[in-house]
Amino acid sequence: MVDTQDPVVTMKQEVGKAAARRVQSDSVVGLGTGSTTAFAIQYIGERLKTGELKNIVGVPTSFQAEVLARKYGIPLTTLDVIEKLDIAIDGADEVDPQKNLIKGGGAAHTREKIVDSLADLFIVVVDQSKLVTKLGSTFALPVEVLPMAITPVMHQLEKLGGKPELRMGVKKDGPVVTDQGNLVIDVKFDSIDDPASLEKIINNIPGVLENGLFVGLADIILVGSIQDGKPVIEE
Ligand code: 5RP
């Protein structure tokens, strides 16, 4: 159960709500993945229920987002039906000063990049700990890979100077499998000096579906922190 007394949970809740408040009626909304975005999805649902918001359709970025959207009564659509989104709300694992991101902590970055990149306005919801001066300084870069290509892709990632590791499930008894049935390699780089070129180089390795570098996509970063025991949200 979610501990609503925990200040960190309260702060995530407030960041999620702040993003959900930016959603307007008659819009197509990208629904991101993760514990912070989950609160945004919940609050969009609440606004729909009270009638404050009308005529919203969501595009989920993962099975998790889809389940939450159904739970909170948000009608869903697909990219076969709509051409673009008005707004997308999503979390991140690292954010640099240029608003470039590392995503994929929840193994959903492939669908997230597709959906978030189609939005007129992409809002990222994070807590202060995710802000870094250089991407790769704290978080390993997630790369979604076809299962049969795991070994050759790992070799290529090593040649690029990374330390790749196959992502295992919490019980360590098997690998994490993505919503698309693929595997995730987490690659630790000492630092990522040129995210735009690394994004392209990794995506060019045969067998790679997508990596978690989101370069030039984010419009607004909403950052939550706890000050004097209270949640504070800054843009
Ligand atoms: C999932 C993601 C998440 O958005 C990211 O991991 C942040 O999640 P949280 O809000 O739980 O910290 O990229 O693939």
UniProtKB/TrEMBL annotation:
Pathway(s) per entry: Carbohydrate degradation; pentose phosphate pathway; D-ribose 5-phosphate from D-ribulose 5-phosphate (non-oxidative stage): step 1/1
Keyword Isomerase (UniProt): yes
SUPFAM superfamilies reported in the protein's UniProt record: D-ribose-5-phosphate isomerase (RpiA), lid domain, NagB/RpiA/CoA transferase-like
Reaction catalyzed: aldehydo-D-ribose 5-phosphate = D-ribulose 5-phosphate
InterPro entries with a match to the protein in the record: NagB/RpiA_transferase-like, Ribose5P_isomerase_typA_subgr, Ribose5P_isomerase_type_A
Protein name per Swiss-Prot or TrEMBL: Ribose-5-phosphate isomerase A
Organism: Aphanothece hegewaldii CCALA 016
EC number: 5.3.1.6
Lineage: Bacteria, Bacillati, Cyanobacteriota, Cyanophyceae, Oscillatoriophycideae
Alphabetical list of PANTHER family matching this protein: RIBOSE-5-PHOSPHATE ISOMERASE
Keywords, comma-separated and alphabetical: Isomerase
